[in-house]
Amino acid sequence: MKQDRIVLAHGGGGTLTHELIAQVIEPKLDNPVLRAMDDSAVLSLDGGEYAFTTDSYVVKPYRFPGGDIGKLAVCGTVNDLAMQGAEPLWLSLGLILEEGLPVAELESIVESIRDTAAEVGVRVATGDTKVVEHGRGEALYINTAGIGRIAARRRLSAASVQPGDAVLVNGNLAEHGVAVLSQREGIAFRTSVVSDCAALWSLVKTILESGADIHAMRDPTRGGLAAAVCDIAVASGVGIRLQETALPISAGVRGACEMLGLDPLNIANEGKVVVFCRGTDAVRVLDAMRAHPLGRDARLIGEVTEKPKGMVLLRTAIGGERIVDMPTGEDLPRIC
Amino acid sequence: MHDVMNRIAELARQVGRHVTFMEVCGTHTMAVSRSGLRAMLPANVKLISGPGCPVCVTDTNYIDAAIELARRPGVMVTTFGDLIRVPGSESSLERERASGADVRVVYSPSDALVLARENPDKRVVFLGVGFETTAPTVAWTIKRAAQDGVMNFSVLAAHKTMPFAMEALLKDQEVKIDGFICPGHVSVITGAKLYRFIPERYGIPCVVCGFEAVDVMKCIVMLLAQIVEKRATVEIEYTRSVNEDGNTAAQQLIAEVFEESDAGWRGIGVIPRSGLAIRPEFARWDAAKTLGVKFGEAKPHPGCRCGDVLRGVLTPPECQLFAKACTPTNPLGPCMVSSEGACAAFYRYERKAVAA
Amino acid sequence: MCLAVPARIVELNGTTATISIEGALREVDVSLIEEPRLGDYVLVHAGFAIQKWDESDYQEWKEIHDSVSHA
């Protein structure tokens, strides 16, 4: 069915999002920097390399176990900078508030932003505030843009991954998405799962300082691990093979996904990084991650191959193989 | 696991000829595709999918009726997530929601009843699809609504039952079925006795199967063993959940609220007595009656071969539209749209086998 | 069709029970099963318990399931 209206799935980070960008947005704005489509744009300015990124936060509800939209708005953008190997320096903060939102709520969110930024060592340099008419509920939306200085010795890019590279992740998958879903109306389930929302720069710094040859890093946010690895496979023109029994998934996430018929590979993370490094450096990277509080459960989850180009395969627990496909965009509870 | 695979190989050798086993449950379709099992089987053992996806076999005119309801002011349409992207003749519930219609995804029919209680100014309609596993949950909800006098709640029923559909497949000359992998959770409700007529009348082995990949493997062992030993009977692999008689309370509930009716299966046609219609006593909770729903003609998409896929005559990659004009983001037929349709499952998890 | 998951009854209140699926909690209707008890294992579909499992059924399932994941 041809989409002539925007549907929720267009914001899911999967195939529909990609289609929208490729067909409607990018062609009108095309330039070499934009075309790279990494987590952050890499800009060469006055002899230095900087990463520049923007992200909007529309999570509903805006409070969830493990965090709130303010914390998310800082971490999400800082993490996009970190994925290019950039130390976060400055953020802009755009607030869009719905008429009727209690000021006390706004205050508490701003405090959350302040606290998270302080922890990370990044500062808010500029901002803007707008108010929109009363809509479907007291909402606030945030846009942040971030600038960071690239510290990595070599350029990290989704297109730089090579056959023979190792694929690693720093810990348990799908926690953020499950935590947020549990707060949503109409779904009604309770879980002890807490969002993994965290700023990853210090972990990334540790990985880079290990001396390992890192080719790319991706934070698997909306669309989950599946979207992140599919993006890399396509951008680098390689195959990726994951091992089902190696994927770190907690019992709590497993239970929630079982209940709702969801695939943990398609669910958002906000404190995870997928690392692609030269194969022989895998142990060095694992050791570096495990020595850091955000990497205690780090795992080697797969490898990069020459074929099939642009595809991700999963070796299943029974020894079979299946494709890990790019998710379409909206993960709904199913009964089938 | 290796033992089971070895056993399959051993029995397949003894059988010698080519055999085809059909599963008739979307959840089995998914389990087979997701585990990569199909490609691991011996060359003479073929697994095909039948019409086990309730979303896939729901006619376009049902979706059109649901959309018409969603467009009415003051109506809230509640549905399982499975239905939201299914295209009707011109639109889908997802698109209608994007255009402002009140369409809500729920996990349980009882969530829909709660929404009806909480929104007395709205007429809340629940889209009742699914087989015998889901029917009792919807029956119970209708009964509760009647008991508590929740008058703004109703169900647009499109439930279907398995046995007559399975029989229709056996009578179909085009498909050769050597054994049925019987749906595990339908059988929790109905009991394994539901399938007795198949070996008795048609001499085809049946095994009621669970949903882990290991369950399907064990089920294949049991089917092959029956063929080798020249037996045809109903056996239960899924002993954790299934017995001969099933859940009698649930069966009584279905009989109390629903009655047999003829039903149209998308791509197959009308199969007599294979549907469940809401009984006249509960007419006030039957959306078709209380909201004056008119079902138009069911219009299949031209060139679509879902009907043949649903009957097991064609495998997804054999359809000319598969992965070309018809993909999960641009689906032309129900087999691709439903997340557990044979084509969607094959596309998502197995298409490399085609591309290679 | 028919995603149904095994769960444990952790609270019971007439025809409503709170079930736990490895820690994920939800209210389900237990009207379709006979004499539900606290601690019972049940199979859950669309917000309803549709069958009881005993301890050995649950262990059998858990073994199969754990061999897939690596939690």
Describe the structure.
The complex is a heterotrimer of chains A (336), B (356) and C (71). Chain A has helices spanning 15-29, 32-35, 69-83, 103-120, 175-181, 201-209, 224-236, 251-260, 282-290, and strands at 41-45, 48-57, 63-64, 67-68, 86-98, 123-132, 140-150, 166-169, 214-218, 239-243, 274-277, 299-305, 312-315, 321-323. Chain A is α+β, with helices and mostly antiparallel strands and 336 residues long. Chain A folds into 2 domains: 42-150, 2-Layer Sandwich (60s Ribosomal Protein L30, Chain: A); 158-323, PurM-like C-terminal domain (Phosphoribosyl-aminoimidazole Synthetase, Chain A, domain 2), CATH 3.90.650. In chain A, the strands form 3 sheets. Chain A has a 7-stranded mixed sheet. Chain A has a 5-stranded mixed sheet with strand order 1-2-7-5-6, covered by helices on one side. Chain A has a two-stranded antiparallel ribbon with strand order 3-4. In chain A, helix 3 packs parallel to helix 4. The longest helix of chain A is centred in the first third of the chain and has 18 residues, at 103-120. Helix content of chain B is 39%, strand content 17%. Chain B has helices at 2-15, 26-35, 60-71, 93-98, 109-118, 135-148, 163-171, 184-190, 197-202, 213-228, 248-257, 287-290, 306-310, 334-337, 342-350, 352-355; strands spanning 19-23, 45-49, 75-79, 103-105, 123-128, 153-157, 159-160, 179-182, 206-208, 234-236, 258-265, 269-278. In chain B, strands 2-1-8-9-10 form a 5-stranded parallel sheet. Chain B has a 4-stranded parallel sheet with strand order 4-3-5-6, sandwiched between helices. In chain B, strand 3 (75-79), helix 4 and strand 4 (103-105) form a beta-alpha-beta unit. Chain B is globular and about 65 Å long. The model of chain B has no long low-confidence stretch (mean pLDDT 92). Chain C has a 5-stranded antiparallel sheet. Chain C has 1 helix and 5 strands, in the order βββββα. Chain C has a single domain (5-66), classed as Roll (SH3 type barrels). Chain C has one helix at residues 55-66, and strands spanning 5-13, 16-21, 24-29, 41-45, 48-53. Chain C is α+β, with helices and mostly antiparallel strands and 71 residues long. Classes of the chains: A alpha+beta (336), B alpha/beta (356), C alpha+beta (71). Chains in contact: A-B, A-C, B-C.
